[in-house]
């Protein structure tokens, strides 16, 4: 879902029946942030609710959150967008099928990506956006687009690395006890505890959703 406000996306999820849906992608938040003048924290809280609701209605689906773009020549928009994207990156939990899609190759500083201060150009920006989405979601990208992607130099050092959401079935650098639990948040981190690596662990999912609802620790 692209171009809607977060509330519209939430309503769509709440009124849709999901049967075997494998992937759900959202590109929302820019209108809430720039047109409705919500703070980045307010928008991130709304998107957290969107993730919680989506995983509740369709727990087996992969959820993808696409990072948003700032308005051109607007320092306030750039700062707010960077802060929001930073918060969104912290919501990722690959083990629980929640992913974030970055667009390091799309910028107002790169000629041809936008047709105006807000909208992606059809000739370049939209094509790159589609390629990024398909690549992240492991969908088919045409050979011509693959060649273009491989020839680009992505600037991944512009923003600091976002804090990983400290939860889920994964090894980490945090202190653990002999039972394979994360001492910081009591989340399972031992992959051997999974009955089936292809299925979500219900306890971990519940903890993840509770963590999102409860907010981030500073």
In short:
The chain has 218 residues and is mainly alpha-helical.
Superfamily (CATH H level) name of the domain at 6-104 and 156-165: SGNH hydrolase
Query: Measured on Cα atoms, how large is the radius of gyration?
Result: 18 Å
Low-pLDDT parts are: 146-161, 163-201
Hey, roughly how much beta strand do the residues contain? Answer: 5-15%
Task: Return the CATH architecture of the domain at 6-104 and 156-165.
Answer: 3-Layer(aba) Sandwich
What is the CATH level 1 assignment of the domain at 6-104 and 156-165?
Alpha Beta
Helix content: 25-40%
> How far apart lie the N and C ends?
30 Å
Helix/strand class: mainly alpha
CATH topology of the domain at 6-104 and 156-165: Rossmann fold
Order of helices and strands: HEHHEHEHHH
Protein name: SGNH hydrolase-type esterase domain-containing protein
Which key features would you list for this structure?
Rossmann fold, 7 helices
Strand and helix map with partners:
Blueprint lengths: L5 H9 L8 E4 L3 H5 L5 H18 L4 E5 L8 H15 L8 E4 L23 H12 L6 H8 L51 H13 L4
Parallel strand pairs: 1-2, 2-3
Summarize the structure in words.
There is one protein chain. With 218 residues, this protein is mainly alpha-helical. The chain has a domain at 6-104 and 156-165: 3-Layer(aba) Sandwich (Rossmann fold). The chain is built from 7 helices and 3 strands; from the N terminus they run αβααβαβααα. It has helices at 6-14, 30-34, 40-57, 75-89, 125-136, 143-150, 202-214; strands spanning 23-26, 62-66, 98-101. Strand 2, helix 4 and strand 3 (98-101) form a beta-alpha-beta unit. It is globular. It starts with 5 loop residues before the first helix and ends with a helix. Residues 146-161 and 163-201 have low confidence and may be disordered.
């Amino acid at each position: 879902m692209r171009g809607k406000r977060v509330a519209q996306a939430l309503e769509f999820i709440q009124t849709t029946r999901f049967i075997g849906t494998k992937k759900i992608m959202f590109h929302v938040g820019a209108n809430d942030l720039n047109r409705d003048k919500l703070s980045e924290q307010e928008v991130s809280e709304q998107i957290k609710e969107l993730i919680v609701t989506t995983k509740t209605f369709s727990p087996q689906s992969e959820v993808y959150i696409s990072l948003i773009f700032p308005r051109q020549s607007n320092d306030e928009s750039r700062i707010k967008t960077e802060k929001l994207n930073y918060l969104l990156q912290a919501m990722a939990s690959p083990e629980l099928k929640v992913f974030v899609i970055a667009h390091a190759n799309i910028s107002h500083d790169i000629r041809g990506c936008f047709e105006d201060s807000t909208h992606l150009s059809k000739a370049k920006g939209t094509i790159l956006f589609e390629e990024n989405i398909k690549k992240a979601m492991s969908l088919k990208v045409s050979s011509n687009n693959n060649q273009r992607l491989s020839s680009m130099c992505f600037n991944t050092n512009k923003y600091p690395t976002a804090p990983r959401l400290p939860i889920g079935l994964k090894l980490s650098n945090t202190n653990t006890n002999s039972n394979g639990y994360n001492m910081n948040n009591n989340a399972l981190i031992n992959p051997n505890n999974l009955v089936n690596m292809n299925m979500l662990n219900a306890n971990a999912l519940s903890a993840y959703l509770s963590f999102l609802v409860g907010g981030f620790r500073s």
